[in-house]
Amino acid sequence: MTAYLLKRIIIAALTLVLASIVVFAVMEILPGDPARLMLGLNASADQVEVLRNQMGLNAPLVLRYLHWAGGLLSLDFGRSYTYSVPVIDLVRERVVVSLPLALIALALSTIIAIPVGVFSASRQGRAGDTLAMGAAQLGVAVPNFWFALILIYLFAVWLRLVPAGGFPGWSAGIWTALKSLFLPAIALALPQAAILGRVARSALIEVLNEDYIRTARAKGLPYRTVLWRHALRNAMIPVLTILGLQFAFLLAGTIIIENVFYLPGLGRLIFQAITQRDLIVVESIVMLLVAAVILINLIVDFSYAIVDPRLRAIPGKVRSGFPSGIAPKQILRAVQRFRETRNRSRGRQ
Amino acid sequence: MTLRVDLPEETLAGVLAKAFGNRSFLIGLIITLLVVAVALLSFVWTPYDVSRLVIADKTQPPSWAHWFGTDHFGRDILSMIMVGARNSIAVALVAVGIGMGIGVPLGAVAAARGGIVDEALMRLNDLVFAFPALLSAIMITAIFGPGAVNAIIAIGIFNIPVFARVARAGALAIWPREFILAARAAGKGMTQITVEHVLPNIATLLLVQGTIQFALGILAEAGLSYVGLGAQPPMPSWGRMLFDAQTRMVIAPWMAIFPGMAIVITVLGLNLLGDGIADILDPKSRRRR
Amino acid sequence: MNLLEIENLSLSIGDTPILKGVELTIAPGEVVGLVGESGSGKSMTALTVMRLLPHLARAEGRVAFDSIDILGASEDQMCALRGDDIGMVFQEPMTALNPVKTIGEQVAEGIRWHTKAGRAEAEERARKILDRVGLPEAKFPLSRYPHELSGGQRQRVVIAIACALKPKLLIADEPTTALDVVLQAQILDLLRDLVSEHRMGLLLISHDLAVVTEMADRLTILRNGEVMEAGDTARTLSEQQHPYTRELALASMHVPARPKPHLAGSAKPLLEVEGVGRDYPGRRKSLFRPAQPIRAVDDVSLTIEPAQSVALVGRSGCGKSTLARMILALDKPTAGTIRFRGEPITGKPESTLKPARRDMQVVFQDPYGSFDPRQKVEKLVAEPLHLLEKQPAKAERREMVAHALQEVGLSQRDMDKYPHEFSGGQRQRLSIARAIITRPKLVVADEPVSALDVSIRAQILDLFAELNQKLGIAYLFITHDLTVARAMADEVLVMHEGKIVERGRAAEVLDHPRSEAAQALVAAAPDLHRAIARRMQEQG
């Protein structure tokens, strides 16, 4: 177990280092001198040179990278050119909006998807299943920002149940703040829940055809008990894989959705920074989000080990492959399951 | 009773017969062909010229003259959706091409060689996977400024590890089969086996993944255009149209509804098509029947 | 009164009839064998008794267990029966256990469900039954997971689950088919003991007539869903009144005719294996200590002469398949050399191996996995032609394929078909056609008939014998089945834990084994002659 986890941690750390090099390199090849940008067009060459030295921009490349990366580790991202405050202060202010939004959406999508998947799998081919999977098929096709617009129109403009946008801040009271995150979270969660629900259903159906399900039934356990006690845990492996992947989508989605709802989160910040060419802010937020994706995938790897005892026992045998840890065959199946349709189940009844 | 795990086995006639009996394939195919036809038609004909601004006609609700209404510049929404289809299809298709073109060989090589090569390629995959398409697009935009090409590159880069992973997983399932051993006993090398045996056997898997990525590409392109990182005005694009609609939601909801429906229908069509193909070619679905 | 009574049972799945008027009874404490080839409906009969049939299946007739009407019982009633009064053991031990639950949980689960016992009590009972099936606590604590056990051990766990509550009836569906002969004998012994200890009825389902003869008091022979013959085991098999019974019995004991047996020492060896070894990187026990390599093949030497047929026998995992792969130059030995026609083939680059490969072909076990499903027969059979110096033209190639197909008893019209259009036996013929198309001197056959039904198996063995006689092809048969070795081989090599422990003329080794490993194999191997004789003796 420890060997498996250690390997995953090392890989995650390695990916993080590589990612930071990529981000750093991208910012290096960018045209424009940050020092000049900060001082404005009227500054003299000498002034710029002084600032360049101050900012360490004249140091060798490797040193500059190490300095920057070292800063990241101590949460010192540098100073924003436009706001003239440490980037970390900006981030701290915004992350309290983005992170809760992403987590609420993730939780919401899981809470909706798993029961729907179980419901559909256990009623394979019947009306309830057909209906749920039809809705899921539609849900997968809906872009979340358009869905957000429709939600705003329905609930904020028409029914006036929730605010159409903006964020009062957590100081306005948790309930008020949560209320303004409600629509964005739904807009993010439902399309993801549609995907997850389909994966959960087909993973379960696949597992229900395994030999050990028959063994469990031969013990005299009723179908329902077998479903919950034996099938669900085995079906969690592909579900976790998709969950890990979805977090990356959710983060990206958060960035867009914040713009729809005028939420003062990291997404708004990054777009403001792009228009103002405040590159250090862009760079810091990208790095932060990449780190979040890597971290989530590490957590998914850990949860594989909790779900599947085979991973705990065979350190040498784990074949690599993103999101890592799971056997290739399972990835293949996960891909196939992902595409499973109602037709098949209809044939089986 | 032994259930054997078969690889897909079929003849062309059998596949066709099944294809036309599969509802999701048929509906998906019809929708997809329709969208492609509309995009092609827009090259020669649209109800109105999308480059002409008629301020007098601005934000007209749907009518006989403008089926889907007009936008804030008086442009015909239907015409813009037709032209926008080109952009969506082109971006998503090229992005799938990039992903397949680079990802599939990488995945196939990783599976064939194994060991260090595999490990290195998969670590590279992890790296790319850590950058959601939107983040790559943001970085690319930071370098080159916004544009439709950015969207293609960003989505294409995102597609590479997806195809690499699917190709690798598929190939790894094929390599231990006995017919590969038989081919090796017949003196065939790694490349030849990959081309003759492995790729044909994972082709359907890749085709299915291709339609998924195509659909995801259309969604992603719309997202990027919506936040201003994709196609730039005046080039009509579905995402951009939604952005324009956002502030006018109360006075002109049709500006948002129709482009959004276009996206939903296109993506739905592609997903149904992918589902259908997977279903037709999946040996398991037949075994269970 | 009978424990189980099946009367006029008919079953269909969709429109396909599976069973037609099956009759079967089992008295308490009685062992009844159900014999038949694949597709005869044996498993479906068992699943009907358990009421675990596929969704589309429809059963008619009467099935009564302990005077409960099974076909008419409610699902709740069935749940109360399954695992408590009727236990079932399945064929595939590798997949029959839930990989994410401990063996303790899985055995205790049924006990808790039926007896409403507490966790501690259920675990105690699980411990007892696991001890009983030969999984003592010291080595197999309840906290073990299935993947930590071997196939034979997993089958013991499945038996423990089935017998935990001392059912009145135990159904064993091909319980030993996936195991090697030694494990098979152990599992059969265990089943026999459990059945007599608790006076259980046992329905033993098997394709293997010898196994059933050794175990069953009465047997029922099934073919295409119909009962061919039923009755007392000894009498049925000694009298062989029904033609199908006779056919099955003959096929199980079939020895193909080889009028010109090979005489050893007559020629220069075709294949020489000298001190060959193969290590695999072992499992790491700790992150900081290098792994101990696993020695799959250890210092093996052997020779095969032209036209000689050699059988390499041994238990599963003894290294015989690894050795075969090294001989075929599909795997590299870590020690020793292999010479083919005097030329070393070890450590040579692929490009220089062509002539050797041309003269050395392979037939695999699985007639389903050894063909690329996307290629037509012509392309599949022609694949080794790639090894010829001069590539034949298309017409010539078709000619050669047609000829090869004819030689294995297929028609040249089959050339444009896909492999899935053939039955298992036909596919094995295709496999042989592919192997002989380059006119090789040696064919390595890895368990070539073990996936086939007995009647098909006899035909394929005949074909092997015929090709040996006609074309002078030497064989290396890799097999765990001693009947195949006896039927086909001039010489037998016995492999055990990576080493060759015995070598000699086939009849000699099989009748008078000297090494311990060979003795174990021979003792465990089911033999129809012997089994019938023993049955007759018991009944006087």
Explain the overall architecture:
The complex is a heterotrimer of chains A (349), B (289) and C (540). With 349 residues, chain A is mainly alpha-helical. Chain A contains 15 helices and no strands. In chain A, helix 10 packs across helix 14 (328-338). The radius of gyration of chain A is 24 Å and the shape is flat. Chain B contains 11 helices and no strands. In chain B, helix 3 (77-113) runs parallel beside helix 6, helix 6 (148-174) packs antiparallel against helix 8 and helix 8 runs parallel beside helix 9 (238-246). The model of chain B is unreliable at 1-9 and 284-289 (pLDDT under 50). Chain C is an alpha/beta fold. Chain C folds into 2 domains: 4-252, Rossmann fold; 260-282 and 290-359 and 473-540, P-loop containing nucleotide triphosphate hydrolases (Rossmann fold). Chain C is globular, with a radius of gyration of 25 Å. The chains are: A mainly alpha (349), B mainly alpha (289), C alpha/beta (540).
Shape of chain B: elongated
pLDDT averaged residue by residue of chain C? 90
Number of helices of chain B: 11
Whole-number tally of structural domains of chain C: 2
User: Biggest sheet of chain B, in brief?
Assistant: none
Query: Which chains make the largest contact?
Result: A-B, 66 and 68 residues
Order of helices and strands of chain B: HHHHHHHHHHH
Q: In a few lines, what is going on in this structure?
A:
Chain A is mainly alpha-helical.
Task: Summarize the SSE layout with pairings.
The complex is a heterotrimer of chains A (349), B (289) and C (540).
Chain A: H1 2-28, H2 34-39, H3 45-55, H4 61-73, H5 87-122, H6 127-141, H7 144-158, H8 174-208, H9 211-218, H10 223-261, H11 266-275, H12 279-307, H13 309-313, H14 328-338, H15 342-348
Chain B: H1 12-21, H2 23-44, H3 77-113, H4 115-129, H5 133-144, H6 148-174, H7 178-185, H8 190-226, H9 238-246, H10 254-281, H11 283-288
Chain C: E1 4-13, E2 16-26, E3 31-35, H1 42-50, E4 57-65, E5 68-69, H2 75-81, E6 86-89, H3 103-115, H4 119-132, H5 151-163, E7 169-173, H6 181-198, E8 201-206, H7 209-215, E9 218-223, E10 226-232, H8 233-239, H9 243-252, E11 271-280, E12 294-304, E13 309-313, H10 320-327, E14 335-340, E15 343-344, H11 354-358, E16 360-363, H12 377-382, H13 394-407, H14 424-436, E17 442-446, H15 454-471, E18 474-479, H16 482-488, E19 491-496, E20 499-505, H17 506-511, H18 516-524, H19 528-539
Helix pairs in contact in C: 3-4, 3-5, 4-5, 5-6, 6-18, 7-19, 8-19, 9-15, 13-14, 14-15
